[in-house]
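Narrative summary of target 7.
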Amino acid sequence: MKVLVFLGSSGSGKTTNIVELISRLNCSVGTVKFMHHERLDIEPSRKDTSKHVEAGSMFTIGVARKETVVRIPVNERMNYDEIEKMLGVLPMVDLVIVESLFSPPKGSGIIISGCDEDDLEGNLKRIRGSYSRDQILAVVGKVCESQSSWNDIPCVDAEGLTKIVTRFIDS
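Modeled conformation, tokenized:
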């Protein structure tokens, strides 16, 4: 299992790129969404965790300051015996995409999302010392509308991101 971390400020395109990537990849994906809220609002269709599930994530874990919610899409309502079997076990996936984690695990790939170059710099400052340069695979988001690279890191669209992440998974 590979871990891919998306870093970026609110509104920079993280969720949009994650949803597009999930729908394009030919592998099993689970997602983790870190949020700044105390508690989670998991109202269907309004939240990023819903968007992850709708795109095809096998599970989504929403992490707030005071609670964590695991969402696993099912075809029909589960009975208690099925839930009991599931407790403590999540589906195995090829890739876990983590949104908004500012302490990337060793060996994870990092995608930086930004509105502009200052935004990208700010994101890197937030994780300084907790990553190596070779972990950064690409830049996505609004900043890529006006440039093809940033600090020798490629700015990519959905197709380019899919290719880069597929190589990362296969490595």
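The chain has a mean pLDDT of 87.
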